[in-house]
Amino acid sequence: MFMKHANFPKVKKAYRNLPVPELVERSVILGEGQLTDTGALMCTTGAFTGRSPKDRYIVKDPITERTVWWGDINIPFEADKFDRLYQKMLKYLEDKEVYVRDVFAGADPRYTMKVTVINTVVWHNMFCHNMFIRPEAEELIAFEPDFTVICCPGFHADPASDGTRKANFSIINMEKKIILIGGTGYSGEMKKGIFSALNFLLPVVDNVLPMHCSANMGKDGDTAIFFGLSGTGKTTLSTDPKRFLIGDDEHGWTEDNVFNFEGGCYAKTVGLSYEKEPDIYNAITFGAILENTAFLPGGREVDYNDISITENTRVSYPITHIRNIRKPSVGTIPENIFFLTCDAFGIIPPIQKLSKAQAMYHFISGYTSKVAGTEEGITEPTPAFSACFGAPFMPLHPAEYARLLGDKIEKHQTRVWLVNTGWTGGPYGIGSRIKLKYTRAMIDAALSGALDDVNYRPHSVFNSLIPESCPGVPDKVLSPRQTWNDDKAFYETANKLVHKFHHNFKTFEAIAGKEICEGGPLLKSGY
Q1: What does the alpha-carbon distance between residue 361 and residue 399 come to, in Å, rounded to a whole number?
Q2: CA 244, CA 425: separation in Å to the nearest integer?
Q3: Which of 144, 210, 217, 381 would suit a FRET pair with 246, their CA atoms being 20 to 30 Å apart?
Q4: Which residue in the list 56, 60, 243, 314 is annotated as catalytic?
Q5: pLDDT tens digits for 320-335?
Q6: What's the rounded Cα separation, in Å, for the pair 473 and 519?
Q7: Of 230, 273, 285, 448, which residue is the catalytic one?
């Protein structure tokens, strides 16, 4: 029997927790998707092929008013307008068939959030089956959600009367524990909505640090976490055949463990091949969902190089599609943290050890860079900063998350490394990309403890510690200045990058405080 709760709408018919084969069958029959030669379901997301951060809102109410960091990232929405929009969506659903999924978010039972998702699109419901943790049959009996997500791509808001910027929207109501999504078919809005709710509730209520990161565990039980924005190698470097994958995107750090929020993976597929990413490639079988990809001519084989719809092609699949995983998705206290950046200026060393203050500073900064040709109008390396390596999903001020991170680093003596997977020997267009085999060797050395006993020297700009040697890596590669062979050009470019860091951090320095600010880079005098 279907149990209806307070937030469940009146609908024409509701299908609850359908098995994957039936969801696939219905998607194909309804024209929502096509099967590929591996059995994966291929779908398109319509006009929106990514999140729309300018149309993501949080309701301002007694719970959020004084805690949320309001601004361009966390945009306030009036409670009464939410109520009116909610009633309009309920009216819209009255003659619709919906697909309901009861799931968990959070692999640690102490912090698990029960979530009910209501979809008007079949494959969206399958996406939630893939991406969230799947309850056992007995756990579904009398299931009552802590949060409800209602996703209706066909429902469009009227900005003039509803208070939204455009017809599409994603609105989180922390007090009523409801997320409304309309006007967009991009499935990632659902998982990021729940992630945002956890990012608010866990630190405020439970003193748990939520993190936009991947995590894995070694055979000896040591846990490592990897932060990094798009293009930095986060998924590639954390999916290691020698280690067990805990999760690839969203985690919480408690007093005694790290746990995955999710039950699946949502990986980019542009340029995917077996040679580059064998684990992801092999995971795209029956039960996986491909988004906005295309077929090679004459068959059902996927062309992963086709970006005619978007460069943000994606695949979602249950984490069980990956062979080498941690069960359950819970690790120990991290011994190593890796901040990944793709520095197109060629200034940041390929690996450096950070102090607590430096770790907090770089965590708030969340730096990487875009290169010429990646976006219209970009003609030279352009810094990209995203606080906590996930600013669009962080409702609190970044300094709050940074302080929690700093406390945990200090308490557990966790080592923190800043790893540059970008350029060396000069900036983009002059230098070359750091070889992946060198990056892997440096991370392996950090994980194994091989970097514990080598000599270090301070970086002249970032004041962090650079190892003078690393197994499997030429010594010269470890020093970006040496790879340039031009000190004047190196330090002039370094100062240019430092100015960008300082300009970005002005937003945070008043609340961040002196300790964190002192972890930032320094200008090199004379250049």
Answers
A1: 9
A2: 34
A3: 144
A4: 314
A5: 999 999 999 999 999 9
A6: 27
A7: 230
